[in-house]
Specification:
Blueprint (H helix, E strand, L loop, with lengths): L13 H4 L3 E6 L4 E8 L7 E9 L1 H5 L6 H23 L8 E7 L3 H18 L3 E5 H7 L11 E6 L4 E8 L2 E7 L5 H11 L6 H9 L24 H13 L6 H27 L3 E5 L6 H14 L2 E4 L10 H12 L18
The structure holds 5'-O-[(R)-(carboxyoxy)(hydroxy)phosphoryl]adenosine and zinc ion.
Zinc ion binds next to helix 5.
C-alpha cells in the first residue's frame, strides 16, 4: 500500500486516457514540492512525478526555519520544479485537469508562493483550482495507491501537529485529541537542540537512540492514564532539560535520546490504540514526519499485531512534507466535483475540522 513512483515517466499523456490528472504544489514550510497525481474513483491513484526541494541545509545554520528565507527560496525554485515534474511525468501543462496547492496551515509567506503559482496556472489554462489543507494531505498519505480510504483512526505526527482523528471516510473527520503544548516533532527538534544535535532533531535523535538504552532515564509519560485523548510533550522536554542540567556534561547523549524517544513512542502508541478501541475501529493509519521513525513504526506494528488491528503506514517518502499527498487529497475532491475560488485566501492557522 502507498507505493510511490518517484519520478517515473508516464508513457501516455494522462489526459488522452481520460483519467483526471492533478498538478499539486506544497510550500507550507521549508520544502518546495510539486507532484502530478492521476486517478479515477474506485481505482488506485498513481503518482506520476513527485519532486521535493528541501531547504533543511539552508535553515540548519539558524537552528530552525526562518520564514522569509523559506518563502524567497520557494519562489526561486518553484518554476524549475514544475518543469521537472512535468518532464518526469511526460505530460504538458495543457494535459492537466486541475491545479492544487496547500493553503494552510503553515507559514503565511510560504503558503502564498505555492497557492499563487497554482492559481496562476489554473487561471492561464482555464482549469479549476483546489485549495488543500496540509493536514488532510498528511492524513490521506497512507492511502495513496489504495483503492479506497477505509474507516480508521488516524494519528498525524509532524513538526507542527499531533492529532488523533476518527475517519469515517475521506472528508469525514472527527477530532479525538491533539497536543496541548508542543507537537511530537517539535519536542524531538527541541530535545535535539538541547543535546547539541543538528536541526531537525527528529532523525538525529533516532540515529543516536539506536546506540542508547531506552530504560536509562525514567522520563515522564504525560497524560498516559487520563481518560481524554490529548497529548502533552512539554513536561517530557523539561524533564530532559533538568537531567542535562543536573548531570552537567556527564550525561550519555545516546541514553537520553533513547529514553526520550521511548517515552514519546509509548505515549503515541497507547493513546492511539485507546482511540481505536473507543471508536471501535479496526484500522490505524500513521502519517507525518515523525512517523518516519523506525522505532515508532515497529512499536505500532507490534502493538497493532497484539490487538488484532490493521496498521497502515505512509510510505517513507510520503511522511515528510511532499506534494504527492496534496495531489491525492486534491484528486479525491476533484473526483467529488469540488473546486475552490481563485479569490480564496491562505489560512496560516487553519484547523483540519
Ligand atoms: O511532516 P513534516 O515534514 O512537517 C510538518 O508538517 O511539520 O515533519 C517534520 C518533523 C520534524 O519535527 C522532524 O524532526 C520530524 O518530523 N522527523 C522525525 C523523523 N524524521 C522527521 N522525528 C522522529 N524521527 C524521525 N526519523
Ligand atoms: Zn507537514
Amino acid at each position: 500500500m502507498g507505493e510511490f513512483f518517484h519520478g517515473r515517466g508516464a508513457v501516455i499523456p494522462a489526459r488522452l486516457c481520460g483519467v483526471p490528472l492533478i498538478l499539486a504544489i506544497e510550500s507550507s514550510c521549508d520544502e518546495t514540492a510539486v507532484a502530478l497525481v492521476r486517478g479515477e474513483t474506485g481505482c488506485a491513484a498513481e503518482v506520476l512525478a513527485s519532486v521535493v526541494a528541501s531547504q533543511i541545509e539552508l535553515h540548519r545554520q539558524f537552528g530552525g526555519v526562518v520564514p522569509e528565507l523559506a518563502s524567497r527560496n520557494h519562489s526561486l525554485h518553484l518554476h524549475a520544479l514544475v518543469e521537472q515534474a512535468l518532464q518526469q511525468a511526460g505530460v504538458r501543462v495543457g494535459d492537466i485537469d486541475a491545479f492544487a496547492a496547500t493553503t494552510g496551515p503553515g507559514l503565511a509567506s510560504s503558503l502564498l508562493i505555492g497557492s499563487t503559482a497554482a492559481k496562476a496556472l489554473a487561471c492561464a489554462t482555464r482549469r479549476p483550482f483546489l485549495s488543500i489543507n496540509h493536514l488532510e494531505g498528511h492524513l490521506l498519505s497512507p492511502f495513496v495507491g489504495a483503492t479506497q480510504v477505509p474507516a480508521h483512526v488516524a494519528l498525524i505526527v509532524s513538526g507542527g501537529h499531533t492529532l488523533l482523528l476518527d475517519v469515517a471516510d475521506a472528508g469525514r473527520y472527527l477530532k479525538l485529541g491533539g497536543t496541548r503544548d508542543d507537537a511530537a516533532g517539535e519536542a524531538f527538534d527541541k530535545v535535539g537542540k538541547m543535546l547539541g544535535l543538528p536541526y531537525p532533531g527528529g532523525p538525529e535523535i533516532e540515529i543516536c537512540a539506536r546506540e542508547g538504552n531506552p530504560g536509562a532515564y525514567a522520563f515522564p509519560r504525560s497524560m498516559l492514564h487520563e481518560a481524554h485523548l490529548d497529548f502533552s510533550f512539554s513536561g517530557l522536554k523539561t524533564a530532559v532539560l533538568y537531567t542535562l542540567q543536573r548531570e552537567l556534561g556527564q550525561v550519555s547523549v545516546v541514553d537520553v535520546a533513547a529514553s526520550f524517544q521511548q517515552a514519546v513512542i509509548e505515549i503515541l502508541v497507547a493513546k492511539t490504540l485507546a482511540a481505536a478501541q473507543r471508536c471501535s475501529r479496526r484500522t490505524i493509519a500513521l502519517s507525518g514526519g515523525v512517523s518516519l521513525n523506525q522505532a515508532l513504526r515497529e512499536a505500532f506494528a507490534q502493538a497493532c499485531g497484539r490487538a488484532g488491528l490493521e496498521l497502515v503506514l505512509a510510505a517513507p517518502n510520503l511522511c515528510t512534507d511532499n506534494a504527492a499527498m496534496i495531489g491525492f487529497a486534491a484528486l479525491l475532491r476533484h473526483l467529488a466535483g469540488e473546486s475552490s475560488p481563485l479569490d480564496g485566501d491562505i489560512h496560516p492557522h487553519l484547523p483540519l475540522l
